[in-house]
Amino acid sequence: MSPPKSAPAKRRIALEPQRRPGKQRVAELMRAGAEVIAERGFEATTMAEIAARADAPIGSLYRFFPNKDALADALILRYRNLMDAAFEKIDCRPEASTTEAFADALLTALVELRGETQTAVVALLDARSDSSAWRDEFHDAIRRHIVRALKLRNPRFGDQAVEDMAVVLLQNMKTMKSLNPERDAGAIAELHAMTRLYLTSKLGD
Q: Per DSSP, which regions of the chain are E strands?
C-alpha cells in the first residue's frame, strides 16, 4: 500500500507587529526590501542584503518576514493600500472639487505612487510566473475605483456607460504614469487638457 500523501505546505506569512517599535522596524525592513528589489530584482535579492540595507540583525528580518515571498506579499499589499488611500482622497467630498480638478486628480493618482515601493512591485510582478494575472488584478482594482469615483459624482450614470468611461480614464492614467515630466512636459499638458475636456463633456462643471 502506498504511503498517504502529505498535506501541502502552508505559505508562511508576515508577522503583524502590535506595538509601535515593531511597526517602525517593519516599515524600515520593507523600505529596505523595496530598495534592494528595485535595484537588483527579486530573484537576485537576498534576505541578508535586505537586513544589511536596513541596518538590522538578520534574525529581526526573519522574525517579521519568514521568507522572501512573505516580504514580497507585504510589499504588494502595501502598494494596494497606497492605491486605495489615493482614491479615498479623490472620493472625499466630490461636490467640493470642479470637474477639471477631478480630472487632474485622476491623472496624477498613479504618478504620485511612484517610488521604491512601486518599482519593487513592478520587479516582483515581472518575477512571478503569473505576472499577467497580477497586473490584470491591479488594473481591475483601479478601474473599480474609477467607477466608484464617477458614480459618486453622478449616480445617474448607467452601469455600462460608467464602465466604458473608466476604461478610457484608466488608459489615460497609464499613459500619464509612463511619461517623464522633464522630457514630456508638452504631452503631459495635452493629456491633462484632453482628460479635462472628456470629463467635462460627461459630467459638466
A: none
What is residue 92's DSSP assignment? S
Q: Are residues 162 and 194 in the same domain?
A: yes
For 84, the domain range is 76-203
pLDDT at 133 over 80: no
CA angle, 104 as apex, 100 and 109 as ends, to 5°? 150
Q: Which of 189, 149, 142 is nearest to 170 (CA)?
A: 142
Is there a contact between 68 and 45 (Cβ–Cβ < 8 Å)?
A: yes
Sign of CA dihedral 58, 61, 63, 65: negative
- Grid cell locating 60: 529581526
Instruction: Report the sign of the C-alpha dihedral through residues 67, 73, 78, 81, in that order.
Output: negative
**Dist CA 111 CA 90 (whole Å):** 14
Which grid cell is 130?
503569473
Q: How far apart are CA 170 and CA 167, in angstroms?
A: 5
Please check whether residues 57 and 92 belong to one and the same domain: no
pLDDT at 13: 56
pLDDT single digits (tens) 61-91 = 999 999 998 998 888 888 888 889 989 988 8
* 135 — pLDDT class (breaks 50, 70, 90): confident
Residue 2's pLDDT is 42
d(C-alpha 59, C-alpha 3), whole Å? 37
Provide the domain count of the chain.
Answer: 2
